[in-house]
């Protein structure tokens, strides 16, 4: 098993900003957690990544991977002249990947490349590019 390390993700700004996620460990259920603490002064406002892997007990059982990214938006609310930070909304991405235990490394590499391309974003692109999940999310443009 690999050791959990800090990681970084870049945002979609014109000049992308790298967000550093600090490894927080693996809980008793095997879920690894990372927090990006610089985005908020309250814990509920931290960007959060989680990742897990479950291997079935029989060789015919699939291996299940799940990853989550939570991106909250924190606003300042003033009550009786006192400012409070409050989470007003959050965006959530959940990725679930299921592979057979006898899949090859190359098959899994191909699968992850397909996922990367499917999640890509090309605003105002071709009809094929508009079918990509990333374009649908960013442009709020459903497939036709």
Share of helical residues: 10-25%
Output mean pLDDT: 87
Backbone shape: globular
**Spans with pLDDT under 50 lasting ≥5 residues?**
none
Work out the radius of gyration: 19 Å
CATH arch. level architecture of the largest domain: 2-Layer Sandwich
The neighbouring-strand order within the major sheet is: 1-2-3-4-5-6
The CATH fourth-level homologous superfamily of the largest domain: MS2 Viral Coat Protein
Question: How much beta, percentage-wise?
Answer: 35-45%
Q: Major β-sheet, in short? A: 6 strands, antiparallel
How would you describe this structure to a colleague?
This protein has 144 residues and is an alpha+beta fold. It folds into two domains: 1-102, MS2 Viral Coat Protein, CATH 3.30.380.10; 104-144, no CATH class. 17% of the residues lie in helices and 43% in strands. It has helices at 105-118, 127-130, 133-139; strands at 7-10, 18-26, 32-36, 47-55, 63-79, 82-99. It has a six-stranded antiparallel sheet with strand order 1-2-3-4-5-6, with no helix packed on it. The longest helix has 14 residues, at 105-118.
What layout of secondary structure does this protein have?
Elements lengths: L6 E4 L7 E9 L5 E5 L10 E9 L7 E17 L2 E18 L5 H14 L8 H4 L2 H7 L5
Antiparallel strand pairs: 1-2, 2-3, 3-4, 4-5, 5-6
Main attributes of the structure:
alpha+beta, MS2 Viral Coat Protein, 3 helices, 6 strands, about 15% helix
Describe, in short, the structure shown.
The protein is α+β, with helices and mostly antiparallel strands. The chain contains 3 helices and 6 strands, in the order ββββββααα.
């Amino acid at each position: 098993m690999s050791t959990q390390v800090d990681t970084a993700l870049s945002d979609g700004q014109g000049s992308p900003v790298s967000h550093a996620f600090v490894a927080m460990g693996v809980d008793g259920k095997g879920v690894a957690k990372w927090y990006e603490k610089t985005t908020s002064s309250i814990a509920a406002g931290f960007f959060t990544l989680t990742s897990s892997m479950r291997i079935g007990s029989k060789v015919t059982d699939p291996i299940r991977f799940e990853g989550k990214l939570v991106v909250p938006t924190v606003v300042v609310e003033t009550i009786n002249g006192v400012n409070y930070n409050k989470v007003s909304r959050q965006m959530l991405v959940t990725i679930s990947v299921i592979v057979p235990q006898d899949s090859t490394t190359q098959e899994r590499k191909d699968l992850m490349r397909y996922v990367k391309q499917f999640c890509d974003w090309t605003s105002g692109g071709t009809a094929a590019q508009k079918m990509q999940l990333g374009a649908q999310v960013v442009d709020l443009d459903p497939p036709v």
